[in-house]
Batch of 2 targets.
Target 1
Amino acid sequence: MSVLELSIPRPDDWHVHLRDDAILAKVITDTAQTFARAIVMPNLSPAVTTAASADRYRARICAALPASADFTPLMTCYLTDATDPKDLEVGFRDGIFTAAKLYPAGATTNSHAGVTDLAFLDNVLQTMQRIRMPLLIHGEVVDPAVDIFDREAVFIDRSLAPLVHRYSELRVVLEHVTTLDGVEFVYSQGPNVAATITPHHLMINRNAIFRGGIRPHFYCLPIAKREEHRLALRRAACSGNAKFFLGTDSAPHLLSDKESACGCAGVYNSATSMACYAQVFDEEQCLERLAGFASEFGADFYGLARNSGTLTLRKGATLAAPADINVGGGKIRHFLPDDPVSWHIDSLESR
Ligand code: DOR
Ligand code: ZN
């Protein structure tokens, strides 16, 4: 018998870009309506590099929340060559920081102030290992000689494998894993190494970016890979292995910045992500494993309590694309794959 309705504990998003100012004010509702908590990426301009700036950013997020929202932003520190380990430690101890994010300098949007050489991070990583603060990694090399589709696999060989060897107790998340290589690497490590998986990397392969013409709304970083990699991500997400959990990497950009001669990387999926994940788990015939992936394994990895609310998803008519979001004079487009999605969010009970 096919399942038509599924209730899971309220999920968390372990990787999201909420931006700031006018965009934050518009997109926060989509995240807060679905997720109880989210790990908020720090790649603002200027980046969130200190506990004081994270505390102020958190206050801006909370001020932008609708009055009825039951949502907690979890803040991250943007690591640079000059990150002060003391500020990081105090910020973590005081509950301002939940984790720190490593962007190799130049790897993606607003990453120019990121880390140019992991050697600069030695004190920082020693500190994080000691205090058990998670390191979240954008796992791509920036070497322009490396093909864009190989940048994750090469990063694992050149940087990630040596890093987890050197800091063997460090808690590490390979964010938005996109390759079989990444999945195999995470499996090969202990329970301190995990990965997040986005809905779009589970649903599209690299052909989608070029189907019928160039499709900027399917362009993100790390870029979608070949079909064999998408299938590996599906197996990992649906495996029931607690190393793999939900992180949407929802990354809003205005249409004018996406549909451009040099368009920005990022897929905005906050409103459609849970329907997409449910679609994938349904197609893989493992809907009973969605709760672990979406609502349990991430909280367990971060050492946080699981949520008490409930999200109910329902299968029915094909999900229609939500209307673009108006922001000032611009618009933000929601992610929806070309193939139909038959799931949607039915209801949410906060507590
Ligand atoms: O596609 C992406 N967009 N990948 C990232 O790593 C950053 C993000 C953004 O901030 O737009
Ligand atoms: Zn991201």
Target 2
Amino acid sequence: MRLSRYFLPILKENPADAQIVSHRLMLRAGMIKQSSAGIYSWLPMGFKVLRKIENIVHEEQQRAGHIPMLMPTLQSADLWRKSGRYDAYGPEMLRINDRHDREMLYGPTNEELITDMVANFVGSYKSLPLTLYHVQWKFRDEVRPRFGVMRGREFLMKDGYNFDLTKEDALHAYNRHLVTYLRTYERMGLQAIPMRADSGPIGGDYTHEFLVLADTGESEVFYDSEITDLSFGDRAIDFDDKAACQSVMEEFTSRYARTDETHDAVAFNEVPEERRRVARGIEVGQIFYFGTEYSEKMGAMVQNEEGQRVPLHMGSHGIGVSRLLGAIIEASHDDNGIIWPEGVTPFHCGIVNLKQGDEEADAACDALYDSLTALGLDPFYDDRKERAGGKFATMDLIGLPWRITVGPRGLKNGVVEVTSRRTGESEEMSPELAIAKIAAIYEGL
Ligand code: ATP
Ligand code: MG
């Protein structure tokens, strides 16, 4: 993409109403535009990152055998009356009447819809195990929408639902989700720590929230610092292997890590003092096993091997897709702007032409652009007639991890400059080597 043909409405001034850095930077970098409280338009640059995050989520869900689908945003109130949640949900639910005065709602989540669907179509244990998911917009009329996309009213969520014959199978689904989430967040350059969370009125130990440590996080968290040494990496795992998934679960959840809702001062004190940490975190996901409660209410029953009709064991598992943009920026920025991890960057690298209009510099930039594109890479070429300082500032603000700078002086010596956004370090090399270097960085991503 050439900047001159793109739509990148960068703000020069710091927006006064944005309290945290990610919100500020998303507005300044022309990624989002508020349309009303907690509701945003995703401008091209923001939309690109949103799609990348969504793609990673899809890839990792499908790697585990979870099946994508799409349910509507608008739901009928009747379904929610069946589960008993229509009244219980309160003012966070946006309620709408259609022209026939039928009560509808904009879904805050989808347990009712999917359980009803499974109740309709699944009658035998032979159809199990089954995990369905979608990535769809949700609406929650939050009392205090704030921090940009972090706490919106309309937001994009991946929500997945497992349906199993037994508790044991459902707990395998739970572990499988934990494993997929670990890899999902790491691919986005994030460390998200599974922490024991509050299961609410349903009870049980089977819920974890995934938290990204950040001073601006809304949750207070308590953990053993050893947990931050763990990483899932690119290990291969057989998702059908119960023991393998359970062992990852144990590895990542055996140390103390809890949100304030489940914090236990006595247990925390057993962690050696030098490893005890109290910090803040951003909730980017949650997994939950809740047994047969919804299945019983919504009539999701199957015949087991003995021919008896039994309710399905269920869990639901969410990822805050749009919130993740904010979380990634909170975790990865500096005074000059965003620093995108390679896994989610909107463009793979920037090209800065120091002397737009200079025949040789223009030709070299065009050649770089074409070669990178031919390799399947997505460069962002600042081809404006602007001074170098302004171009650098724009590149730093939008946060592409790599920049290739092209100018007449370097070209005389046959070199361009490759700069890392993260370290600020620059290296001179031939255009061919620069292309090879960028291609190597993104190989396999
Ligand atoms: P919170 O405690 O932050 O309100 P929640 O626990 O109610 O979130 P879940 O029902 O667990 O949310 O939803 C799954 C994920 O969706 C959350 O982990 C979070 O990342 C994201 N999410 C929830 N509410 C919002 C929101 N208002 N704006 C953006 N993302 C959200
Ligand atoms: Mg939650």
